[in-house]
Amino acid sequence: MNMTVLKVRLIAVVVLSALCVSSAAAADMDGRTAARINDDWSFRFASQVSGRGIRVDLPHTWNAGDALSGNAAYQRTTGVYEKRLKYDPSWNGRRVILRFEGANQNVAVWVNSRLAGTHKGGYTAFAMDITDLLREDADNLLTVRVSNALDQDVMPLVGDFNMYGGLYRDVWLYTVDPLHVSLADYGSKGVYLTQKSVSRERGDVEAAVVVSNSGLEATSGKVKVTVADGSRIVASGEGRFDCQADSSVRVTVDLSIKNPHLWDGRKDPFMYEATAVVTDADGNVTDRVSEALGLRWFGVDADNGFMLNGRSYPLRGVCRHQDRAERGNALLPEHHREDAEIISEIGATGVRLAHYPQAEEFYGLMDRYGIVVWAEIPFVGPGGYLDRGYTASPEFHANGRQQLVEMIRQHYNHPSICFWGLFNELKTHGDNPTAYVGELNELAHAEDPTRLTTGASNIDASDPLSFTTDLIAWNKYYGWYGGSARDLGRWLDDTHKRHGDLRIAISEYGAGASIYHQQDSVKPGILSGMWHPENYQTEFHRQNWQAIAERPYVWGSFIWNMFDFGAAHRTEGDRYGINDKGLVSFDRKVKKDAFYFYRANWNDEIPTLYIAERRHDIRSSELTDVTVFASHPEVELRLNGRSLGKMTPQGLSTFVMKGVRLVPGVNVVEACAKDGSVDRVEWRLERQ
Q: Which residue from 10, 175, 237, 413 lies 20 to 30 Å from 251 (Cα-Cα)?
């Protein structure tokens, strides 16, 4: 086990200007303090030869402008951030540690022009102990170089998304006692809660705590772990340790909880709090760390799909990229919360966080919302693009292993995570990645024997790559990239019949849609062109979801995508630089018709009553079909105050009244439910 900060080749620079730690940002704990140091940085490009940097606050990316304007040649370069760090006398005798939650993608950090450490990989956290580089008698200059340039040694090499550069996640400054829970174990929090056996009668957990001794002498001590339900302690245990100077030791504590309160998905996402307390040989508390603990068990059956806590739990899922309009990937907590609320609103029970480890905060939100997570490393193949996503070099292999270990250790305790994703859309011609994926699969199980591995494929099911992970899923776009939506059901049945031992899912399915593109009839748009009608996306999803819903052996399905996202190279839809397959617009302000189709089918908690094609408000055809998505058993349709009759669903919470005759000028269409709720739109008929 590597207990040190990974040292890798430099590609980027950041220099810290005056440290501003607000009292609200600082969190005092026994033995440690933690504070975000996001404010008041200076930024410049490394290529500058004169001038000064500009003031920025973190999170920050330098590509929020050029990449989101559809410039395929957006700046993939080196950026320099600067900040000065004033020494605090309270740090005397303690260790000072910087923790970066994410910087894309190659980073080197200096303190007072002396190298503190380096890191390769844009989507996982890393920590550096800077104590011995600090000066007490003057401000300390921290310099961080960050590069998002293509590096053949680092995942990802390609991808249908933007590789935003910068310090786009939080940076923290910790102070800890020399005897502390490690922050340097692959960027993790140093506490691992392994669910050895869970049932409704008993939950057995092994708590492993990595203790670091940064002192000059060997020491001994004790780790006590308690599990609490509010103020009530439900389990506790302790372990003793001896630790040499400047080294780390792993301490394990066995815990057992009788009749545990389970983490039960959306129904009841309950979590305990597990707290590890480190004491020295004299009984003094030197550190304390708390982590959430959600007890559950799960599995996947080749015929019956996903099971949670012993019952069938169909994974109705979406995919999510971590970016949005105007911000790029430099998201604030309120952005993550809004995304989580929207994913919950649609009624999703699962989410694939593609194509890289996402913000720590978002995994925590999924825990609290009870949404099952597929987390994955950025091993991304070329898809339909010309380049390759795999380099068969020792350096690339080592980096992939590093990023996998980092992802697993950093997010180990999240009960929402049930799947570790190992690849997306790899090709097996030329340098074949199959054997390497097999190595990653073994590594994932060595790191975490409790979760399942999977991958997202777009090649034939008979390829050996399909058999390297525990589960397998496919990205299928029948009806968008060729074929028709009716083909999905046939493909699923054929694949299940030919490969009955495979546990299969749909990792992506979707169609582009612009809220500005409306049409009278339902016809496909131009997939690589500038016409992506919204009503075709809706019909695409109606047909695809019907095929999926009828097949219980599909262990999960994940819509591509929950939100429109940035892809600077795309020239399609209503503007360049956007992949518009989202059910929600890039700025999160508009939920497309297909969103309400799914909400009516998936969410039993929020009543849905929604008239589709509402944005097609200028019409040239006198006769029209009116479609309503509703979770009600019956809907009355009214036109200009006159009842056109009551409708019952035609399947999938869809109500259709054909041949409604509009009048010239403004038409008021209303859908009314028995509970008194009404949805209302206005359409104008303009004769040609």
A: 175
Q: How far apart are CA 277 and CA 152, in angstroms?
A: 42
User: Around Cβ 115, how many Cβ atoms within 10 Å?
Assistant: 14
Characterise 31 by phi-psi region: left (phi > 0), alpha (psi -120 to 50), beta (else): left
- State the Cα–Cα distance between residues 361 and 650, nearest whole angstrom: 40
Look-up of token digits 């199959």? 434
DSSP states along 609-633? EEESSTT--EE--SEEEEEEEESSS
* Beta partners for residue 29, in sequence order: 32
pLDDT the model gives residue 51 = 82
Distances (CA, A) of 440 to 185, 352, 444, 647: 19, 19, 6, 53
Cα 165 to Cα 147: distance, rounded to the nearest angstrom: 6
pLDDT in tens, 560-580: 999 999 999 999 999 999 999
Band (pLDDT 50/70/90 cuts) for residue 527 is: confident
Residue 306 · residue 315 · CB < 8 Å: yes
Dump pLDDT digits (tens) for 74-127.
Answer: 999 999 999 999 999 999 999 999 999 999 999 999 999 999 999 999 999 999
Rounded CA-CA distance 164/166 in Å is 7
pLDDT-above-70 percentage for the chain:
95
Res 466: pLDDT: 95
Can you tell me the distance from the alpha carbon of 635 to that of 236, in angstroms, rounded to the nearest whole number? 55
264 and 270 Cβ atoms separated by less than 8 Å: yes
The H or E element that residue 497 is part of is: helix 487-498
Query: Which among 567, 563, 586, 564 has a CA at the least distance from the CA of 577?
Result: 567
CA nearest to 86, candidates 172, 170, 18: 18
Q: What is the dihedral of CA 548, 552, 555, 558, to 10 degrees?
A: 20
Task: Tell me the C-alpha to C-alpha distance, in Å, between residue 335 and each of 70, 158, 327, 343, 367.
Answer: 22, 26, 10, 12, 17
pLDDT, position 619: 95
Tokens coding 505: 């899912």
3-state DSSP assignment of residue 236: strand
CA 14 to chain centre: 26
Distance CA 45, CA 49 (A): 9
Tens of pLDDT along 171-192?
A: 999 999 999 999 999 999 999 9
Is the pLDDT assigned to residue 483 strictly greater than 70? yes
Answer positive or negative: Cα dihedral of 335, 338, 344, 347. Answer: negative
Active site residues per annotation? 425
Does an H or E element contain 663, and which? none
Distance in angstroms (rounded) separating the CA atoms of residues 104 and 344: 29
Q: Give the β-pairing of 315-320 and 556-559.
A: parallel
Per-residue model confidence (pLDDT) at position 10? 30
SS3 state of residue 404: helix
Strands 232-243 and 219-229: antiparallel
What phi and psi values does residue 104 have, to the nearest 5 degrees? Answer: -105, 120
